[in-house]
Amino acid sequence: MRKSASISGVVAVAFPSITEAELAVLEGIKSGLAAVRGLEILVLSGGYEGALRRLVGMKELAGAIGDFVSEAWLLPLREGGVRVVQLAQCSRIPSVPNVEPDFVAMGQGAAQALRADGAGEYVFIGSPGQYASERLLEGFSREVEPFAVVSGVSQAQIREALRQVPGPLGVFAGSDRQARLAVGAARELGRRIPDDVAVIGVGDDRLESLYAGIPLSSYALPGRELGRIAADCLLGNAAATELRPVGILHERKSSLRSPTGLDRALIYARSNLEEPLQVADLCRIAGMSRRSFETAMQNAHGTSPSRYLEGLRRERAETLLTTTAQSVQEIARLCGYPEPCVFSTAFRRWTGRTPSEFRRG
Questions:
Q1: What is the mean pLDDT of each run of 10 residues along the chain (361 residues)?
Q2: With CB atoms counted within 10 Å of each terminal CB, which end of the chain scores lower, N or C?
Q3: 158: phi then psi, degrees, rounded to nearest 5
Q4: What residue ranges define each of the domains in the chain, with the CATH number in brackets?
């Protein structure tokens, strides 16, 4: 990708709060700007509007990356000649480059997972007016028809919404905090998790799972990749905004209704493709002999375990090559291939092209 080094000074990275997800974005930004000399990265958190304006007044601010509220909020920065990149979660601002994951695809994937798990009715929990929440709901609604859409962040609101919906119920929450509140609300109603109410969140926040008392199924956001794309946009590559990496859904106990041994193994495979999994590993997770596992796979999916696993890896590889700017080496690792040359050989066998040729095509 084309990068311009015609920028020097302070680049402010502004977050409403510092969480694991934000730290991953920051690592990606630092990686993307590492080759540019003369840049100082300043991390701001909380009420950062005053600090940014002071930097503009001192003629020190060259660029700003963050999830800003509105066009009016950015006006002083843009008038000061500051390059701005929006991490579009709270809002999307058309006048500047916007960097975001594919929220719609994530909403669709959550609906598909809940439906496959046996949900009969669906509830979406989001934040009113938040761009990411609206896009997640858009994708969710493409796959299922929500019985209720809850706009709020209190457990009492969620409890009253769940009270009206018969089970088995599938809940998709726009954040892990909201997913944790949904778990608490269901328990207050005497409903079992996940048998009566299955829950999926967004953010893959380990603390929220601890607070919930059950491992939460959740989308891990592609923070490092979003940070790298944001850095590329700041350096003048407008095409980088076309990339829409998709988070990885980690399915855990909050949404798994008594899976069979086969289901348990395949769910683990989908959530942990970066591990160099072998068929023997899946048999162990399923608690089945290899012969029984292969027979169950053939009956349920019409293929062998090795081909199913290979198909998952191919699908992830093609998605990452077309929706991210990650290196072939990094994509190989995320698909369970520690050695890039082994990955490239496998990819050529699948598609007839090398990963680089596939990306260019």
A1: 61 87 92 87 84 82 89 84 91 92 96 92 94 96 92 87 90 96 96 95 94 95 93 90 90 88 90 90 93 93 93 93 89 92 94 93 78
A2: C
A3: -65, -40
A4: 9-99+224-245 (3.40.50.2300), 103-220 (3.40.50.2300), 259-353 (1.10.10.60)
